[in-house]
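Next up, sample data.

:::
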Amino acid sequence: MPINPDFQKKRKRVGKEEGVAVWGPVDPPEKLGIRGTNVAVDWDICKGCGVCLDVCPMHVYGWKGTSGHPTSDRKPSPIGESECACCYDCEAQCPVQAIRVVFGPPKAFIAAVPLMFAQIIVSVIYGIVYGPYLGLSIPFYVGWIILVVGLPFFLSPSLYFPKAQEGKSVMDTRAIVDSGTYGIVRHPQVLGCILLICGSIVISQHWLSAIVAAPIFVLFYRYVLKEEKSLIVKFGNDYKCYMQRVPSMNFIVGIIRLKFRKHE
């Protein structure tokens, strides 16, 4: 019987081992539960064949001793699940279907999102209620234009990604999406976040808004660099060709290139 895709809803998290979540029930040595969250291995199903270690390009897995377990005396543990490129090779090639891979943004990115929304909302409300801090009216209206431009980029995943299959996230695509805003920039959602933040700063014109935004920009930049490496691993030369056609986040260059491609 394969790993339960809804194990996080149906099982209780009972602890961690070397930073890897453990989902019960656990009653060693016979019953060991599931290890991992975004990359999860059901140790009670796993036979320790090592296929996942062989096929994983990001070296996510490491061996852990499980002496006395009925199926094998060692199991692969997803000790590097944060580095997973979501290529699904391990999940697809596991002979007993003991692995489940689910897309999950880095923790730093997840932490930055609520801070980003707080920064945008507070800055916009400040600009509306108290007026721009510097009293400049033209930039105030320009800020609203930037917000409007940034919104479709921010909503890109839900607008242009194909529907996920087998209960996976909409971001969990297995094909390169190059339509819509993805034909203009490779990371439209991050660009949308940056434009929304910049728009809110220009609306409020307050120095505190800019200070709060600075670390968010750094976190987004690091996220884009990491994601690019993962996507190259996941899609190979197809993504490298996509990188040559479409800029990372320079939407002006992206629009110009898109127009040239349409006329070719």
